[in-house]
Amino acid sequence: NMSSTSWMWEQHQFLMYQCFPLPFAFLFYFLSKRGYLSLTHRYLFVSVGGCVLAVVTMGFYSLLLFTSTFIFILLVLSVDPSCVHIWAFGIQMLWQTFWHLLIQYREHYLHEPVSIRLFLAVSSLMLLTQRITSVSMDLQEKRVMLTNNTSSRKQTCVMILPLISYTLSFTTLLGGPLCSYSRFVFLMEGIGLSCPSSPLAVVFLKLIQVLLLEWARWCLIYFLKHNMYDPVNSGVLYGILWIWCLALVFRIQYYSHWRISEGLNNAVGFGFWEYSFVDSSELSGLSDGDFWTTELSSRMSEYARRWNFTTALWLRRLVYMRCKHFPLFMCFGFSLWWHGLHVGHFVGFFTWAATVKADYHIHKHLWPQLSPTWRKIYTFLGWINTQMIVTCIAIAVEFRNINSIKSINNCLCLQSYIHALILDINTP
Questions:
Q1: Which parts of the chain span the membrane according to its record (predicted)?
Q2: Does 111 participate in catalysis according to the annotation?
Q3: pTM of structure
Q4: Which residue of 95, 132, 261, 341 has the smallest Cβ count within 10 Å?
Q5: Number of structural domains found in the chain
Q6: pLDDT < 50 stretches in the chain
């Protein structure tokens, strides 16, 4: 009925937005595989599809993305490649930060409801920042050569069309994983040559995995709603279990979004790395993280590398490898800036940085001294420790405000925020 349909849309609106381009992705792959789309038409298909998807899902706020793309193309055409990164990075981060701060101002000072379309546009703008800075670093390091000394408009269009297609591709507009520009061009040119006949089975399997993740998430939400934590009558262990389930609900939401994004990229023929050409079932070349691999991490440093994998690689290249002093804290500090500078982000990301740093030192000195038996015990205790730390970080980051941080410090006293959580638990 209408009520159940409305409930499904409200609870999984962002997931359905991500599924919307799937039929067009399969159509693109079919036409490219059969030779009906030339390389130029492939770039046009992907970029126009991204523009249409942006307008449909974000409305007026799609101009945020179009403005960034237009400015970046102007920079590529007018600025020396060695200087493009500085300009692109500065302008893009200032533009993104302006909208993040505007949302905070409207939420916390004006107490106005913020449109879901604006949230979606800013989320996509963050992903656009990844792609723009990835290309600008490639130009700075001369990994990509874009000759802008063209003599005609046609040659200029031929040069910038792949760039526009990369930045506004409908496959990565609403979610990762991040693919380098050179890899994107290679995959676009190679569709129909080495790819398997159909990625339908692999995409269907990933959609089934998303359904299982969402079912597990629904079960956890049901448990949280019907077994409220009472700091007076409930024990400490029950409180730990309750808040661990709460944080797991948030994390499962990310895994679902990543899985759909991977499936969308597979549907257009992306993810076929060189080692996977022999076996058509191998489509894991583009991935932001697997639930079991990530959640079974027994060290915070492992968890940090596996969580949102392509973003972690991007941060490492953009910040960690370029900083001479305190690279780890600078990396997490930039991640805090990129995510929006909420109060909870300060606590969450710097706690994450401190625990990763501590993990490096503890593991380096303790692991060589342990016997095989004690190493197994150490690994198990490390997994529990990692889960508890990630739980506290997830709560601080997702709630974003001071009240959530106080609630963590006051013996898991989250009772006053439970009802607000149940209402907002599915917000992307």
A1: 14-31, 43-64, 70-95, 116-139, 159-179, 236-254, 326-350, 377-397
A2: no
A3: 0.86
A4: 341
A5: 2
A6: 1-9, 275-281, 410-428
